[in-house]
Design a protein that fits this description.
Elements lengths: L2 E3 L13 E5 L9 E3 L2 E6 L1 H13 L3 E5 L5 H7 L4 E2 L7 H6 L1 E2 L4 E10 L8 H6 L4 E4 L3 H9 L4 E3 L4 H7 L5 E5 H7 L6 E13 L2 E2 L4 H17 L1 H8 L28 H39 L2 H16 L2 H18 L10 H26 L4 H8 L4 H31 L11 H12 L2 H31 L3
Parallel strand pairs: 2-5, 2-6, 9-10, 9-11
Antiparallel strand pairs: 1-5, 3-4, 7-13, 8-11, 8-12
Helix pairs in contact: 1-8, 1-9, 10-11, 10-13, 10-16, 10-17, 11-13, 12-13, 13-15, 14-15, 15-17, 16-17
Length: 482
Amino acid sequence: MVFVVAWTGSTVPANDDPLRWAADAEGGAPYIFYDPQDPGRVVGFEVDLAEALAQRLGRRIQWVQYDYAGLVSGLRRGDFDFAMNGLEVTPDRARALRLSRPYYVYTLQTVVRAEERRFSSLEALLALNGRVGTLEETAAQRLLEEMGFRPVLYGNQTEPYLDLEIGRLDAVVMDLPIAVYFARPNPRLRFLGEPFGKGYYAIAFRKEDETLAAEVDRALADLAGSGVLRRIYERWGLWNSAQEALEYWDATDVTAEAGRNWTPSRYVPLLLQGAAVTVFLTITSMAAAIILGLPIALLRLYGPRPLRWAATAYIEFFRGIPVLLLLFFIYYGLPSLAEQWALPCSLRFSPFQAAVLGFGLNYAAYEAEIYRSGIASVAHGQWEAAASLGMSRTVTFRRIIFPQAVRVILPPMTNDFIALFKDTSIVSIVAVVELTKQYQILAKSSLKYLEIGAATAALYLVMSVPLGLLARRLERRWGKGL
């Protein structure tokens, strides 16, 4: 969804045809974020830069809220005029887009817990098989992978530092502006070593918008030469000696490196790894839902009144809250509560544990209702007939009632299983790289959204269509006996 919001305070003359600038405020400080003192407006060093560009260009610039993952595809579709959101200059982006001259020179910064003394460098951490977190599809990710790490990938910049604080990660490597804003003020974290690496942030335009891009290039050169850029960065604590080296950079210089041969042999194995994670999550989560769902259904049908009320409350509660919210609470909220209340256990679940627990709790509510309706569909006369033969209620349920209920239960349960395959796509918020997340990472790296998307869809179909066929076969086979 796209939201259009214009910040207040601009002295640029009104223009009936404003430029639309896309950025994701969810990404946060210090780039662009909602002002804590006035949530009705956005602030950040890129907001200040956009204001200065508007002054130089003599045109009003309107901010468009757009998901960071979709900035490149949205720009190419024409949803907005340019994207400026900490976009790193990469060969693939330079090939597909018209990149401006750089407006910021970034470096990378390693952050660890304040008490960390086991290692003094990333190389030493690699020898310890440590866990390092970073943002997906960034220079930091590529550098860590080249070093031999398998970094834990995140979609925003606050969650890695939270995981670092509570011990799920050993270090976080991200761009220096992010570390300055989030890690430096935190007494529980500290910088490890000096900033390293070097890269550029640039504004992205469509290839056909060369005239607009050239105007922005001239405006950026003017802002750099007049000292305006320096004043903006000093205001946000981002100015350093690296910025003095800002000079014109030709995006075409790196297009030769863009031929990274994104052939099926390169991306299909990675998609298969993501599919394996999806299958594992689906099977284990469904098993947890089945184990929880059947007792809840039985309590609601046959338990004493307080337990029936409790079972009903469970079902209504977990059906009524989004799975996304539940995963956030389990993964990030529970450790904070344990620390705040000084509980004897930390309640720190791994990403897989949190995902299985969240989906298990949520789907158990739906499974319980399926089981309840299936069991209730068996005629009451079956109970009476079994009682007349001297069977106990337990034996009657196990041998007579439940086998008949299974005929009603299995088809909708299979449908839930198929739905769970697709719902696992949201677990990337707790740093699990499943099939959909792997697609997003690969598509953003290669810009082959259609080709890799088709391969991803085929994998989902391979996993789900056989289950659908099984459900319909069960309906035909057992429906005759109902």
